[in-house]
Amino acid sequence: MPTVEEYLQAAWKIHQSGNVQQAMQAYQQVLAQVPKNANAWCYLGIALHDQRRYHEAVEAYEKAIAIQPNFPIAWNNMGNSLRYALRPEDAEKAFQKALVQNPNYVNAYKNRGTFHAWSGNLELALQSYSKAMKLSPDEPETHRNIGVISLLKGDFENGWNEYRWRWKCPEAAQYAYKQPKWQGEDLQGKTILLYAEQGLGDTLQFIRFAKVLHDRGAKTIVHAQPALMAIFGLAENKAALGIDRYVPNSLPIEHPFDYHCSLLDVADVLHTTTDTIPMSRAYLKASPSLVQYWSGWLSRLPKSKRKVGLVWQGNKDHQADIFRSFALSTYEPLGKVDDIQFISLQQGFGSEQVPTWQGSRPLITLPDGTDQSGGAFMDTAAILSQLDLLITSDTSIAHLAGALGRPAWVLLNKMPDWRWLLDRSDSPWYDSIKLFRQSTQSDWTGVLKQVKDALEHNESSQL
């Protein structure tokens, strides 16, 4: 019969395989029999954290520490959960406690660094990462995180060098092909496979580099998300983007090619800087037939009013979504601005909030089936072509608007994704985008005041 610790280790293997719920039941079974088992409480905390039940995770770690005060792993994990629970002071104390108990704890330095980075304290973050590097110089996650900070600060030269380490992180899923990875070789007469490595927004942003390589004489095969096949597959867009063939990455590649490279890595290989970003103006077009349809649909709205689209929720599975997305009610103060008709472009998760809208002006919703019959983003792209403005959180539709050259105001949390850089209201990636930034983490009040003032002063060429 296995010991309690052997049983916990078996449950942990189940946990690591991705079956968090089954593992959590095993941890709870142990605690039902041995309620003073500190390891079981710690494992339970990890399971709760993985289910985004951060407050409950903190409680589990507290019980583990009450039983075993000298428990750096529990202190470190609790710091992470406190970070997501928006308790920064307590998170810092937890990380510090872990490091007092184990001064050589690499993961605690890494996690503390990420905590400081997300809080906007970049120098403190770099100090923690530096300490982690001294203890473990070849730790890929630390290099990657330093790369993210460098890119965020606009230091693309150091940023690309460090961010390249992401491919060595455990969660990386780089394709393995017998053909070589492109490192800048002459592509005249060659075929290169270009693939997406991250989310839809990333692909919309970096697809521009297919055109750059196509102009160098390459034939391009783009292997990316099925959801983008329709909009990238439009004849106008395929030509403008230099895409010779688009293959959804739900299917294997069966076409011959000479080199492969992720779309994002093309920017790295080309030593892209903020001054050399290509195609910052519109490089996508909406379907003409859908533009005609939505022009007619939107014409039914009051003609004297400015038409402004709203999006508030991004991918809920994104690790930073708790910081970058917000509730629909956050937009309600904008309803006091005269002569505006708001239209919800939110789809999927987050759209259930629409009935709760209490703005002083109505929020128009789109018909069921939008973006479903013609393909993802197809209707939205056409709608954006007819709106005066999009106001959105940091999500893929912001990249869609930028790629279409449509005016968009993007609301950013205090420490945004690296591509939006720091301390600027414009984006070198998209000429049509204006950025509004938090001054305090998780406080959207000041951001909305800026947006409201801008709307009242018609700060858009389209308004």
Core attributes:
Serine Threonine Protein Phosphatase 5, Tetratricopeptide repeat; Rossmann fold; alpha/beta; 3 domains; 463 residues
CATH topology of the largest domain: Rossmann fold
Distance between the termini: 73 Å
Q: Regarding CATH, which class of the largest domain? A: Alpha Beta
Name the CATH homologous superfamily of the largest domain: Glycogen Phosphorylase B
Structure description:
- The chain is an alpha/beta fold and 463 residues long.
- The protein has three domains: 165 residues, Tetratricopeptide repeat domain (Serine Threonine Protein Phosphatase 5, Tetratricopeptide repeat); 79 residues; 169 residues, 3-Layer(aba) Sandwich (Rossmann fold).
- 45% of the residues lie in helices and 10% in strands.
- It is built from 20 helices and ten strands.
- The strands form two sheets. Strands 7-6-5-8-9-10 form a six-stranded parallel beta sheet, with helices on both faces. The protein has a four-stranded parallel beta sheet with strand order 3-2-1-4.
- α19 links the parallel β8 and β9.
- The longest helix has 14 residues.
- The mean pLDDT is 94.
